[in-house]
Amino acid sequence: MNQTIHWTEHGQSMQAMWGGDSRHPAPTQIQTISQISAEQALQHMRQNIALLWRGDYHQGKQLLAAIKKRVHSKARTHNDFHKHRLQQAQHSRLFQQLLIEIQPDGQISNNRAPNVAGAITDVYGSPNHTNLLLPLHLLLGYIGAHEWHKTGVSIPALNEQKIHVPYGVFSPVRGEYLQLVAEAQLPEPCHSAWDIGTGSGVLAAILAQRGIAHITATDNNPRAIACAQANIQRLGLTGQIHIQHTSLFPEGRADLIICNPPWLPAKPSSDIETALYDPAHQMLQSFLSQALNHLNSNGQVWLIMSDIAEHLGLRSSEALPQWIQSAGLKVIHKTDIQPTHPKAHQHHHPLANARNREITSLWQLSAQ
């Protein structure tokens, strides 16, 4: 968020910081509006003319909803994952063309607009010192994420204690695999554990609850580090869990190394998708290839993976077992569970055929 956007409004030169998704270009043409039809708005947006909404805030939300409805109704249904992702990226870029201006104190001058200081601080880490120009659809996502952050997600495997997750950190809302981690037999002995790519810190917390005395949780995302630290402190587990900002492994060895990497080998099309997509399974393969070098004698590697990439034709069913074997590891136990999240049972989603067959597994591995 360091690019300044300029536009002219009522004959005056205006400027604000650009807060749109970094994977899409900032607008070069901006037109201010307070009333327009969805069809007219789309015509401008398809010509790369961004629309800065000055009308009633709730009418702006209605306009965005009408735009999305028109775009989605005309969208082609792609059973092919790559075509589906391309279309998603094109839609995301289009929706980024309807803007809202936010003042440094989180106020929005539009009629009936809420104060969004909390949501903005959640995303950017500190209050703005200048006006911010933001796509309305991103702002609505920030507001929704902020409410989830405040409310928290109840975790059955933590006796219904809550994990609080801000925007940009993977949330355990679909946490069927957490119970697998809570119930799987630990290696013997198991005095130390590492949670690689900890995100919210939920896996580290479950391992601490199981009595492991020394746990290191790592991540390379500063937002995830701050999130995990806050959750671990809130749960009273700072005596057992150390959070470390690093890529993959810390120094030394552990009795148990656990990782829940991104499940889909694709390029993220937005900043928030980096927890979901791992191009060419780079993180997964790096983790597997290095894990044995950090494992104590009789230690185990626990890998949490979904097979949805196989159902989408993005990974063969033989690939993961081959990578495990090539890393000098062997499977000692594998536990499967079916997803319980609502998307797994949708029948009209373009990728429903894969989602309906998805299985999530806990792979327990040891040295060959």
From TrEMBL:
Annotated keywords: Methyltransferase, S-adenosyl-L-methionine, Transferase
UniProt entry tagged with the keyword S-adenosyl-L-methionine: yes
Pfam families associated with the record: MTS
Keyword Cell wall biogenesis/degradation belongs to the record: no
GO molecular function term, any single one: nucleic acid binding
One BP term from GO: methylation
Domain Methyltransferase small: 185-306
SUPFAM superfamilies reported in the protein's UniProt record: S-adenosyl-L-methionine-dependent methyltransferases (SSF53335)
Cited PANTHER family: HEMK METHYLTRANSFERASE, MTRF1L RELEASE FACTOR GLUTAMINE METHYLTRANSFERASE
Protein's UniProt name: Methyltransferase
Source species taxonomy: Bacteria, Pseudomonadati, Pseudomonadota, Betaproteobacteria, Neisseriales
